[in-house]
Amino acid sequence: MKGQENQPQKSIPSLIQQYLPRRSDRNGAAGLGFLVLATFFLSVVVFTFSPTSYAGLASAALGILCMLACIVFFVRYTLFLKREEREANE
To answer: Is the dihedral of CA 20, 25, 28, 32 positive or negative?
Structure first.
């Protein structure tokens, strides 16, 4: 792998900035990520453990927190998208 030795390593924030340049895009991607995590925790993990066990209750609580984060990021996505459309029209 001789070609990869000379290439500088890019940090994760710079890669995110490169592929998702707008703030609305980043918030939308984060919202989708939290939606996937919430669905995973609230369906697979809760029922892998018994929903009435401590692990099931903890994973349900984590799933609810992920769902709240999903809602927050989708609201931010909407607000930044409206702001970017308003700035593009001016």
So the answer is: negative
Query: Residue 56 region, left (φ>0) first, then alpha (ψ -120 to 50), else beta?
Result: alpha
Cα separation, 11 vs 59, in Å, equals 31
Whether the CB-CB separation of 34 and 69 falls below 8 Å is answered with yes
Instruction: Identify the burial level of 85 via C-beta atoms within 10 angstroms of its C-beta, where 0-12 means exposed, 13-18 middle and 19 or more buried.
Output: exposed
Q: How many other CB atoms are found less than 10 A from the CB of residue 49?
A: 15
As a whole number of angstroms, the distance between CA 25 and CA 4 comes to 30
Model pLDDT for residues 12-69, shown as the tens digit of each residue: 667 666 766 777 788 888 899 999 999 999 998 888 888 888 988 899 999 999 999 9
**Tens-place pLDDT, residues 66-83:** 999 999 999 999 998 898
In this prediction the pTM is 0.76
